[in-house]
Amino acid sequence: MATEVKVPELPESVSEATVGEWQKNKGDKVGRDENLVDLETDKVVLEVPSTSAGVLTEIKVSAGDTVKAGDVLAIVEEGEGAASGNDDGDDAQDSGDRKAKDDASESKSDDQGADQADGEEPIASPAAKKLMDENDIAARNVEGSGKDGRITKADVQKAIDDKSSGKASQQSEAKSEGKSDVAQSEREAQAVSEQADRQALADAPNERTEQRVPMTRIRQRIAERLLDASQNTAMLTTFNEVDMQQVMDLRNQYKDKFEKDHDVRLGFMSFFVKAAVESLKRFPIVNASIDEGDIVYHGYYDVGVAVSSPRGLLVPVLRDADQMSYANVESTIRDLGKRAQEGKVTMDEMTGGTFTITNGGVFGSYLSTPIINPPQAAILGMHATKERPVVVDGEIVVRPMMMLALSYDHRLIDGRDAVLFLRTIKELIEDPARLLLQV
C-alpha cells in the first residue's frame, strides 16, 4: 500500500518551509521513522521521517522548493517486501505483454528450480537478472532471500550497494545519484559549499569576482527581526565594566570538583544567568514587555541564551531559570549549543523568553551594542575578559575586566532602571557570595 509523506504541522507563526537536501533517493529502502528530508523554516530545521517501512517510490518536490503544511513530499510503498514486490512491476509496467512475458519467464525459472542441482547458480527473477546483467554481477555473488533461495531484484541491489557505494543503484537513476551525495546532510553540504566559495575567491585574488547566492530562510527571518527591532523600538544601550577576579578565583577553586560531581564544566555563563535573574527580580520592568497599549509583567524568568550555529544565530530559552542550579544551567546550555550545531534545536525551545543574554566575548569582541529580541524589552551583552590596569583602594592594579552592555527599549524602561539593573549585575558578579545570599 502506498503512503503519502506530507509536510507536518508547522510551528505557530510559521506558514511555510523550504525543502532541504533529500536524505534518501527514489528507489531506496526506508525504515519506519527514518528521516527522509529536512525542511528549513525561518526558525528551525524540521526532520520529516517516513511513517512506514518500505521503498521510496516517488519524490514530489525538489530541494529549494517552498511547501506548506499538508503538502505531499513523497510516496512510500509500505511493507518489508515492497522492494521485491514492486521490482517485477517496475520492469513490467510498460505494457501488459511485457508483464505476461516476465510472469511466464518466472514460471519457467521456478520449474527449472525444482531440478536444480547443487553447485548450479541460484534462480533469479527476470528483473533481478536484468539488473545483474546491467551491473556485471554474477548470481553466485548474490545471496537470495526469496523462496528456495530465489534471487530478487532487492537482493541484487543490496549486492551492488555492498560492492561499491559509489555506483548507482539503478541505471535509470545513475544521473540523479551522481548529482548529490545522500550521505551528506544539509548542514554539511552548506558548509562544503561555503568553503568551496571561499576557495574559489582565494584562487583568483587578482580578479574582480562576484557571487550571488540566495539567503536561507532563517537568515531572511533574522534580517526581518533585526530590522523590526531597530525600526519599532526606542533602543538605547548603557555600558559598565565588571571585575571578574572574584568569579575567576571561585571558578578555579571549585571547577575540578564541580565537573566531577556534575559531569559538566563550570563556566561564566551560569553566574551571569543567576545574576540576571536576581536583577530581574529587583527590576521587574526589565522583565516585562509591551503588547499593543499594555505593559505585560511576567512572573517567571525565561532567559534566552544566544548561540551560534552554521545556519545563523539561535536563541533557545532556559525555562524558569530562577529554579535552575548552576550545574543545570551549564548542562542545559552545553546541550543546546551542541544541538544548535546539529540543527536539532526544537521550536518549543526557541519560543518565548523574557530576557536574553548574548556573549560576543567567545569570539573576542571587546565591546558591542546588542540588538533587542522583540517582544523582549532588554538584552545583556557579555564581552571578552581582558587584563587592564584599574584603580582599587587608591592603588593601580591589573585585573581581568569585562565590558557589559545592556540594550533596552526606552519606551518601556527608563534610563535610571536600566543603569541600576546593569549595576546590580556588576555588583553580584564582583561579589558572587551575594548571589547565594540574595543580598
The whole-number mean of residue pLDDT values reads 79
Q: Uncertain spans, ≥5 residues at pLDDT below 50?
A: 81-119, 165-186
Tell me the number of strands. Answer: 19
Taking all Cα atoms into account, the compactness measure Rg is 30 Å
Structural class: alpha+beta
Shape: elongated
Biggest sheet descriptor? 7 strands, mixed
Give the helix tally.
12
How helix-rich are the residues, as a percent range?
25-40%
**How large a portion of the residues is in β-strands, by DSSP E?**
15-25%
Termini distance? 67 Å
List the helices and strands and how they pair.
Layout: E1 2-6, E2 17-22, E3 29-30, E4 35-40, E5 45-49, E6 54-59, E7 66-67, E8 72-78, H1 82-92, H2 96-114, H3 126-135, H4 153-163, H5 174-179, H6 186-203, H7 217-232, E9 235-243, H8 245-262, H9 269-282, E10 289-291, E11 294-296, E12 303-305, E13 307-309, E14 312-314, E15 317-318, H10 326-342, E16 355-359, E17 378-382, E18 385-392, E19 395-409, H11 415-430, H12 433-437
Parallel strand pairs: 12-16, 16-17
Antiparallel strand pairs: 1-8, 2-4, 2-7, 3-6, 4-5, 6-8, 9-19, 10-11, 12-15, 13-14, 17-19, 18-19
